[in-house]
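ingest -> validate -> predict -> emit
validate: passed (alphabet ok, no gaps, 229 aa)
predict: started
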Amino acid sequence: MKIHIIDKRRQLPRHHNKKYRRRSREDITQIVIHHSGTKEGSPESFARYHVNHHGWPGIGYHYVIDKKGRVFHCQSQEEITYHTANHNQQSIGVCLIGDFTKESLTDFQKKAALAFIRFLAKEREIPIANVRGHNEYKGHGSSLCPGISMEGFRGQLREKHLLPLLKRGASGEEVKFLQQALIKKGFDPKGIDGMFGPLTEKAVVDFQRANNLFIDGIVGPYTWFSLGL
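emit:
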């Protein structure tokens, strides 16, 4: 499963002389889920706070997922960032924007998070049992972060996602389902005929462009999730 993300690594504020230590990717055995604890936010605002307030070398999260379901790559996986004290050496930090003690993940955010964490766990050969919330780590039990049920989240990570990969030349009921979803989002493929032709491809490309997705005209997991499915 391939997930396309927005690379912010060269764009975020960094400390003028501090740098994070580095590691090999083979050292990574854990994924830590955080929430921002704020109603709104962005990779830029988190980076400014971490650098200017904490004096850190840069943003503490490797990835940030916003309420629109956009995944931002903020630090290289080889960087040992500060996100879960005493557990940073072996972990990747993923932050979901929101305060989930007071609100719920949006549908886009939840589906994007599940798809991306599945992909990341597979890429790094990390078992789902090693996808843990911030407050599941020793020394962090009093934290409210990430504010969601990690048992439930891990259960959903183990579920197989059944929506197919669709591209030009495909046909059938699944393409009709796609065409209906595109129309609901305001991207009309000029009919619901079950044929993935040039007009459906154009509607997909236009939708991907409008939603800051990787533009390839192919409907994979991230495009499905951005469609709210």
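DSSP finds six helices and six strands in the chain.
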